Amino acid sequence: MAHYDASVPATLEPYPERTLLDYLSDATRARPDHPALIFKGRAMSCSELERLSDAFGAALVDFGVRPGDRVALCLPNCPQFLIGQYGAWKAGAIVCPFNPTYTEHEMEDALAATG
Question: Cα 62 vs. chain centroid, distance in angstroms?
Fold first, then answer.
């Protein structure tokens, strides 16, 4: 904190204990057709992101992913990454994002470092 500007609060006290999943759920209820993201000119609505991430999360659970398991996502910046990230969180998993340009050796090292 010593290197932060004096205007930056030292604690998170003013912030509610909410997750990004909570915010997506709230946005979907309040404005289901509102764009959650826009990628290459195509909008994905809050309800679409919610539905697709629900499906991905359920698929992970069906494959045996349990809360606390790590899920590697090796994707570029694209809607599928967010679907995967939200879906993995919904399954209770820890997301480990990996750069898709990693070499095989870099990927092995990165995977080993995730625990």
Answer: 19
Q: Residue 55 corresponds to which amino acid? A: A
Phi, psi of 29 (to 5 degrees): -65, -45
CA 55 – CA 88 distance, rounded (Å): 10
User: pLDDT, tens digit, for every residue of 78-102?
Assistant: 999 999 999 999 999 999 999 999 9
Q: Which CATH architecture has domain 20-113?
A: 3-Layer(aba) Sandwich (3.40)
Structural tokens at position 10: 């030292």
Domain ranges, ordered by start, for the chain: 20-113
The structure tokens listed for 110 are 């990165």
- The 10s digit of each residue's pLDDT in 5-45 is 888 888 877 777 899 999 999 999 999 999 999 999 999 99
Cα 47 to Cα 43: distance, rounded to the nearest angstrom = 12
